Amino acid sequence: MPKLTEREQADFLSEPGHLLRVATVDDDGMPRNFDIDASDPTRVVWTLKREGNPVFRLSANLTASGANVTRVTVDLTAPDQDDVSTEALDIAAAMINGIANLDAHAREAMLAEVDDRASEVTEFIVQQQATLGEELQDLLVDRSGDIDVDVIRSLQLMSMTILADEHGSADPFAVLEYALDPDATDDVLLVNLTSDAQVQSVTSAD
User: Fold this and answer.
1) What is d(CA 44, CA 59) in angstroms, rounded to the nearest whole number?
2) Are 113 and 122 in contact (CB under 8 A)?
3) What is the per-residue pLDDT across 138-166, written as a single tens digit (0 to 9) for each?
4) Residue 51's CB: how many other CB atoms inside 10 A?
5) Structural contact between residues 77 and 163, judged by C-beta atoms closer than 8 angstroms
6) Whole-angstrom distance, CA of residue 134 vs CA of residue 146
7) Could you tell me if 60 and 74 are in contact, meaning their C-beta atoms sit under 8 angstroms apart?
8) Disulfide engineering: 106 pairs with which of 5, 90, 97, 191, CB 3.0-4.6 Å?
9) What is the pTM of this model?
10) Would you list the DSSP string of 83-152?
């Protein structure tokens, strides 16, 4: 079969109904299937990367609050495959598919903390104002006049880490990482979620 031209590839990928199923086999012979659908940029796109321990790297496209379509890196990790239950994987899949709702829920939790002047959300906003100065305005996607609200709405969801082995424990099951400036990787807020998608805490990277 002759190779498709770039135009033919673009036309093919833009057509609905094309689905690629990627299958791998575990050491115990059990299959793992992952679907890749390129026809809808708002759907989750799965890719799999195995790095010794069961570390799965996935990517998802979503429309984040107050922003355009944003690419979010999703890591699902566990120190040992035997520590990950089927229920934990089901919850992880639901979180990935509902990542836009998790994002909105996380922003609401951050907004709820701005009245506490000692909260890490407030400290983050003050720090961003001091660091960026007038350049802060260039990073805002909304300018309501309330700087706290504007910064939180303008944060970009950079990644979600799912700690699959923490299902049912007191530690976070998932961590959402937010940055105002994607290039400033040290200046981030972390929203920690329980396995039932409740916000446990909001902390800085420090």
Assistant:
1) 7
2) yes
3) 888 878 788 899 999 999 898 888 888 88
4) 9
5) yes
6) 15
7) yes
8) 191
9) 0.70
10) G--HHHHHHHHHHHHTHHHHHHHHHHHHHHTTT-TTSHHHHHHHHHHHHHGGGHHHH-S---S-HHHHHH
